[in-house]
Structures are given as C-alpha cells and as structure tokens.
Amino acid sequence: MTPTLVRHHRHTEPSASADDGSRARDWAEIQERMLAPLHEAVYARLEVGPATRMLALGCGSGLALLTAEGRGARVTGVDTDPERLALARARLLPAPEDRGSPATGARLVDTVTEAAAAGPHSLITAFTPIGCAAGDGDELVRSLGTAVPSAGRGSTVVLTGWGPPERCATEAVLRVASRLAGDGRTPGGGWRGPRRDDLEDVAFRSGLRPDGSGRVACPFGYADMDSAVRGLLSTRLFDAAVRATDRWQVEREVAEALRPHRRADGTVWMSNVFRYLVCTS
Description:
- By secondary structure, this protein is of the alpha/beta class.
- It has helices spanning about 20-30, 35-45, 65-70, 80-90, 110-115, 135-150, 170-180, 200-205, 225-235, 240-245, 245-260; strands at about 55, 75-80, 105-110, 125-130, 155-160, 210-215, 220, 270, 275-280.
- A seven-stranded mixed sheet has the order 3-2-1-4-5-9-6, sandwiched between helices.
- The protein is globular and about 50 Å long.
C-alpha cells in the first residue's frame, strides 16, 4: 500500500510562522496517512473486528481509529494535542445538528485516566513511533502505567517505532531537527533516532511480555516540496529546532535535505520501514 499524493495549493515559500491549528490540519491532511500501512498490518495480524475494544494512545487526528472502527471495533482515543483531538472528534463523532448521522461508539478523551476509565480494552495501540526524541519512551511508559491495569490481564498492547536508519530514507532529513536544535539528548531536543531495543525496553519497563513483532514498509510520498515540508513539520519532531532558530530557517533547511528525494515530476518520495512489537499484559 502506498500513500495517496494530494496536491495542496499553497505558496511554496517558507512561512514565518504557523499556528497549532494549521499544523494539526497539515498532520491530518498530509502526514498521518503515511502510517496507514502500519495500522493495516497490525489490524490484519491481530484480526481486529467487532470483538475488539481498542484504546489508541496518541490517536492523533483519528485515522487509525477510523480504520479500526471500519473493521467493526469499538474505539477510544486519547491525545495530548488538543488541535489534533478536535479533528479526531470531527471525524468520528457526529455533530449535534446531524440528526441523520449514524450512532458511533467512538470515544475521544483528553487524558489517559479518562481513557482507562472507558475500559476494559482488549487492545491498546501506540501508533506514534517512539525512538524519535529523547524521553518519548519515558512518556509512553507513564501512559501505559495508567492504561494497562484497566485493560485486564491478557490484553494485547502494540508498540511501534522507526525501523533501522539504513532502511529509512527520511532519517537523514530528520537529522536536521537535532542539528538545528543543538541537543538531541534532552526531551524536546529534536530527532534522536531509533535504537535496536527501544520497543523491548518500553515493554520491559511496563511489565509487558513481547509476543511477536513485524516490519512494515511505509513510504512517505508528497505531491510537491511544499507539502513535504509542511507534512514533516507537522510531526512535532522539529519543534525544538523552530524554538532554537525560527520556522523559516527550519523550513528552508528541511527543503534542502529533501532535494535528493525530489523526482522529475516534482513529487517527493522516501522509502521507510517501521517496526511494531506485539505484547501481552
């Protein structure tokens, strides 16, 4: 499965600033779909369907929830980004005035504590890849510490991360984040890069038992350079770099790093591999 290339008619010059709402829309419209093959591979392996009660940690703007719900699962999502969560609510929950909309069992909440209270869940997913920035594994361990006890013994937990750097073309572009931020060792300090045992380390610290793993090709494809830059900046991996310099400089240097991946027709294409670890509680 390959990501759909969608053209967005905006200026191609880097903008000086962008609000959180615009970044969340860029995530929903451009970047989130790049991980769709990962979602599909996990759901197929675990046979997600009507018997599944799923809790998505870091649900973003809801694409993975929509896919699971389409397979019949009952879903709950939580995300710390209020703008992304608002987009997820718009996608999954009918507006009050839409009286003809079908009922949905989806729940979107602001905290992991609220999400846990909506349990028990048979499946917990963490589709935000860890190993990107220092401290992201610690944050996930804290979330799992709240979510897993409410899921019940024997529930399934799926952790995800980037694959080996040599199989991820985007890794070289993401290194711009740590270089401009000046420090990839502290939380929020830009791109750290994955380590071999990142997922196993989180599983061990969370009291989970690994029970299989897999790798999934997730190419990043963009209609043009502007879409590629905006999509990558929407990941939040460049936030520290923007704070250390400014958005214009970050956009310019990301665009320069993307040039080797620009095709003759103007599209931007990078092959990547992501990894998932299936665990039981």
